[in-house]
Amino acid sequence: MRPQIRFLTDELILKIISEAKSVLSTLGVEIHNAKALALLSDHGAKIDSQKSRAYMNDTLISKSLSSVPKAFKLFNAAGTPTNDFSGHNIHFTPGSSALNYLDYHTKTMRRPLTEDYIQYAKVVEQLQFISSQSTAMVPADVVDKISDSYRLFLSLLYSAKPVVTGTFTIESFEIMKNMLVAVRGSAQKLKEMPLAVFSCCPTSPLKWSDVTSQNVLDCAKYSIPVEFIAMPLTGFVAPVTLVGTLIQHTAETLSGIVISQLANPGTPILYGGSPAVFDIRYETTPMGAIETMMIDCAYNEIGKFLGIPTQAYISLTDAKQLDTQAGLETGMGATLAALAGINNISGPGLIDFESCISLEKLVIDNDICGMMLRMVKGMEPKEDFPSLPRFEELLKDEHLLISKHTRKYLKEEIFFPGPVINRANNARWVEEGSSTMEDRAHKEVERLLRSYRPSPLPEDTRKQLIQMMETEAKLHGQDHLPVREL
Predict the structure, then answer these.
(1) What domains are there in the chain, each with its CATH number?
(2) DSSP line for 165-205
């Protein structure tokens, strides 16, 4: 039996969806993209051109929902499926687009550099329980205009895992798409075996910028999967009640689904988000708040009710160091996300309100992910009935350490974490140096960097990616890329 958790009844879900549709048809959504407005107009949406506002009726929303794939897969660079976004399957992905990097040696945050990103890609490639990578940080040693494509370039060059990415400009999409096509071999193969998911974020309340709208249209054109990341802030730019926030999140996400599916019916999507409560005491958006996690799990239920795979930014922390708060918030979020069956759980490695990444936390979180994957397998009998033979053997030998039953099921039943999680007794822990978790995590990072093997990209593909990136950089005034290993 797979353990599960629910926060909403089906009756409440139906009310939330109904209210969201009413908001979209009565108040509409602001869209600052002429192509998206024209598309909506062509399909019967009422458009107020002066206010750049679209009003989406129930028929249009229902039609769009009917074409959304109920499941899809991601494939690594070699074409092997790695992520099955269906049912209650769960997969873990590092958080995205951190502006800071937690330096283990100084214990301070600083802007990330290319070398930090390369080390991240090498580490995440080897983490067993994190099935995809993300464009996790923004290197500060390249010009801003190539930061989107450069992050994807480094990810594709140093790791074979599929990528959760995105772009902050309209212009960046073309080269990023071309990089994905280069790795896959053709646009058709990219459609058949998706290598990346693009994050597309509406602006709360009920607004789509020109850039993000165009991203949705561009991804749809090439059938590149998108995850919709609505970010209502409870009590600030969303109602203070959790249900009210869910109504707004639903409306914002449905509006994105309509644009995507009208542009290309059948485009794969993840029903996602990064909502948060607003802590008025500090004017912050705590991702580690229990109410934030409840909203995440609840909108996941709405997405599943609509038959759409889901995503959430959860299993991360607002802590500034790898302390007790970091473990509390990350572990609690991972547990709730796994029990809720969120298909793509984004967040491992992140601290400080999604703004900073730590490689040490990433390897710690990998073990948390492993524990969660074990938990959702649940319990089932394995030659436990009848039980008398087991207990007869136990009473006879006074242990079952080497019994046939133990040897057969030990590793299947019990998850043994890596060296970061210390399960030695105190005497042995002292004998081995009294290390802290952060020290063990750094040692594991160093081990993974030593054991890294280059991504098995064909040499011609590798050269093509480098040439594309160098050309793009020169267009924006950067003559040399800060990548020593090329």
Answers:
(1) 11-59 (no CATH), 66-375 (3.20.20.480)
(2) E--SSSTHHHHHHHHHHHHHSSHHHHHHS--EEEEE-PBTT
